[in-house]
Amino acid sequence: MCQTDDQRRIERYIHPLVRDLAWLIDAPDLLAMPWPGRPSREELGLAGSALIDYLDAQHRAPQALEQRIGDSVNGRLGHYHERLWQHLLDTAPGTRLIAHNCRIERDKRTLGELDLIYQRRDDGRLVHLEVAIKFYLGLASGPGDADSQTRWIGPGCVDSLAVKREHLHYHQLPLLDRISDAATLTQLLGSTTLAEDALARGIDQRLAIPGALFYPLIAAPAVDAAALVAPREATADHLRGRWLHYRQWAEYKRSLDGDTRGAWLSKPHWMAPPHDDQLLPLAALDHHIQRHFADYASPLPVMLQTPSGWQRLFIVGDDWPRRIPLPPSTPLATQ
């Protein structure tokens, strides 16, 4: 089976938290927005062999990672993702975590929270990092143009890529601009020295938005192929999967190699591929999928290990989507 360097690196580890941490370090962002993207391995101090040394150390002694994650493993993907970042920035050789979940208030009203503030060890600069992990399913037809972000919606049909992009760009990242006085910065950063540095040199900003975009498995014959293009601002290397209705599963299963194995994913472990001992023969996986849709209509994330590599799938009920989220009002998302 063909594997990438990232996949081979993940396979070194059994502990699920370490596997997800390894995935997070290299996972590409979904979007290339006007803000700088995720911190690089070089910035984290994890270039070259330093990455394996770091992950090996985490696997040998995972107690600090386990303590940081705490009860966020109980199905809360967003909280779990944030805590992985907290641990990474606090323990990577090139960074130091300064603060997280920083509440911004004005006139006794909460405006929002800054996810993370860290300091680079090479030049001492402070960085505000917003993080979000998202898995969106693309609609072959729908609101907006073929590449509109409004056509990419969450499996629960509650939000869309367009809505999330607008919230990050117009609300979350500009929150930092609401802070300009030394007293507030000192309280936020926990240090007069850091506050003075922030006033003198400013605070850099970054956005990390890993995840995956799931393309429809089969387009309706009447739908133009251009309807399946990536959404606007999508990075060239974003992680891709396929989504299909349950009624399509039997035919798709027959197209798979007989040696295919797989597993369904449970939150919050939607990141790294499952370990080898979690993989089921295709027949056993098919049995679980049939039982799931006999009792539930909720979308089911699945990963398949085929001779040609890993496949990410989202299998949804035959009536999906039951609704499509309203588009935001910003011109970029709705064009």
UniProtKB/TrEMBL annotation:
<dbReference type="Pfam" id="PF08907">
    <property type="entry name" value="DUF1853"/>
</dbReference>
<dbReference type="InterPro" id="IPR015003">
    <property type="entry name" value="DUF1853"/>
</dbReference>
<protein>
    <recommendedName>
        <fullName>DUF1853 domain-containing protein</fullName>
    </recommendedName>
</protein>
